[in-house]
Amino acid sequence: MARVVVVGGGFGGLASAARLAKLGHEVTLLEARSELGGALGFVEQDGCRWDTGPTSTLLPAVIRDFFRKSGRPAEKEIDLVPAEPARQHRFEDGTVLDLPGGSRAAQLEAVEEALGKGAGARWVSYVDDFGEVWEALRKDYFERVWSAEHASKETHQLLESRLSLHKLVDKEFKDARLRTLALHPARLEGHEPRNVPAWVGVWAYVEQNFGAWTIPGGMGQLVDVLASRLQTRGVTALTDTTARDLIVEGGAVRGVRTESGEFAADAVVVAIDPRRLPSLAPLVERTMPCIPPVISHVGITGEVPELPHEVVLHGHEKRDPTLVVRTGGTAPEGMHAWTILGRGPLAEDLVTALARRGIKVHKQVETRIDRSPRELVSDWNGSPYGVLWQGRGTVRNRIGTVAPISGVYLAGAHTTPGAGLPSVGLSAALVAQAIGPA
Ligand SMILES: Cc1cc2nc3c(=O)[nH]c(=O)nc-3n(C[C@H](O)[C@H](O)[C@H](O)COP(=O)(O)OP(=O)(O)OC[C@H]3O[C@@H](n4cnc5c(N)ncnc54)[C@H](O)[C@@H]3O)c2cc1C
After folding, report:
1. For ligand 1, what atom is nearest to the CA of residue 384?
2. Four-point Cα dihedral 393, 396, 401, 407, nearest 10
3. Who lines ligand 1 at CB under 6 A?
4. Ligand 1: distance of its center to the CA of 39 in Å?
5. How far is the CA of 13 from the centre of ligand 1 (A)?
6. For residue 87, is it within any domain?
């Protein structure tokens, strides 16, 4: 049995710890904050409860697989249900599109109906083209620890391609609304589409094929389930414990140094931004973190417009911010708990900006919590959005699953395959694969 220390108690660290414990390792998890979960979790005020970060996930198989591989199946502990529609898009010209997830035929029909004749066919044809991309990446990059020797020629070509998502989308669509639709996920995460490799568009294929999923009452419920899974598997989880650096001797890791002492280890899983550990920071100096959006959690009283679980308000690409309303918070009788995210040129209060775009609840806000990107990064000890895309070189410039220090592995949003719950969940599976059974 190897002693493994996992640094970071976000979804990446929690999922890695549970999987490694199931494989028979002796696992200690170190979390700097006083609670586990990182971006995943709840914030509460005046009887309202909002998800702090994720409100839905793609690729539910990743979550289900995690539960299966670490003990009992997910169905026994959480209620993962389809989020339908995946989201509502409102475009600058007034077009409203309820985009379904999990069905090509349903997307074809919905896009055709909302955006006009031919638009649905163009959209599904764009998404179809990612089918082969998905198969190649899944085999060599998402579900198998990356190895240049084992990867197929197709995967090499994809990862090395100079084609950006922006260029691909520009070539595919004349309709500005379809371009906006295709670029939305990358923009929401804070990337400039010109710097995002085209293969990242594969998530549109994943959403169309496997749907968007949520947990009624909030994704934050996953944290308690994960924490109790750690307990069952005998993981020692220490909160209020900040890792200061790795202890490295003769090119191999020997443990982790914290303010409260040293933790000896045969292997260390770094599930935080590696920039925060001096031994790893020089290895990622050519990358930058991707910064979270501006957020307002609001509790609203009285009548509110009937909205699906997520509404995206797109404005003019250069002049207006993109606003996202997430309506799934829980609130006392007569109230509603919404979260508003803002990206792009935001020059006014989020609730005012929302009113200007037609969702007028500004006079009904009873309670609110505003969080700036800076506060969020400081509170979460790094950005849960991982590494900013700066072109195809970003894949090489970030550290992959296996770090170049013997015994050090990376999980979480800052490593392969990237940010978001499905990718972070995959990163934990990759770490378990790389370390193997005890
Ligand atoms: C506002 C917002 C909305 C989002 N919405 C979605 C969504 O709807 N769907 C989706 O799939 N994804 C979403 N995401 C992305 C997703 O939440 C993240 O990619 C994912 O949760 C990151 O998990 P992680 O474990 O890598 O990092 P984090 O959640 O950032 O966790 C890292 C943990 O490590 C701890 N830590 C840091 N440094 C140290 C140290 N030195 N020692 C010990 N501990 C340390 C931190 O305190 C933190 O708890 C959203 C993110 C945000 C911010």
Report:
1. 30
2. -150
3. 7-13, 30-33, 38-40, 53-57, 242-243, 271-272, 276, 292, 295, 380-382, 384, 412-413, 419-421, 424
4. 4
5. 10
6. no
Beta-bridged to residue 152, according to DSSP, are none
Query: Looking at ligand 1, which atom is closest to the CA of residue 52?
Result: 1
Let me know whether 27 and 72 are in one domain.
Answer: yes
The amino acid present at 144, given as its one-letter code, is: R
pLDDT tens, residue by residue, 127-169: 999 999 999 999 999 999 999 999 999 999 999 999 999 999 9
Directed axis angle between helix 11-22 and helix 421-435, to 10°?
30
Residues 252 and 271 both lie in one domain: yes
CATH at 355: 3.30.70
Both tokens of 233, joined, read: 């598997």
Domain count along the chain: 3
Total count of residues recorded for the chain = 438
- The domain in which residue 172 lies consists of 103-204
Residue whose CA is at the smallest distance from ligand 1 atom 5:
54
Q: What distance in angstroms lies between residue 225's CA and the mean position of ligand 1's atoms?
A: 17
Calpha distance 204→183 (Å, rounded): 10
Q: How far is the CA of 10 from the centre of ligand 1 (A)?
A: 5
> How close is the Cα of 356 to the center of ligand 1, in Å?
31
- Partnered with residue 58 across adjacent β-strands are 212
For the CA of 242, the nearest atom of ligand 1: 42
Indicate whether 326 and 243 sit together in one domain. no
**Residues 261/284/344/391 CA torsion (nearest 10 deg):** -160
Q: Which of 363, 379, 395 is the last residue of a domain?
A: 379
Would you say residue 1 has pLDDT above 70? no
Beta carbons of 175 and 122 less than 8 angstroms apart: yes
Residue 244 alpha carbon, nearest atom of ligand 1: 41
Using one digit for the tens of pLDDT, what is the confidence trace for 312-330?
999 887 889 999 999 999 9
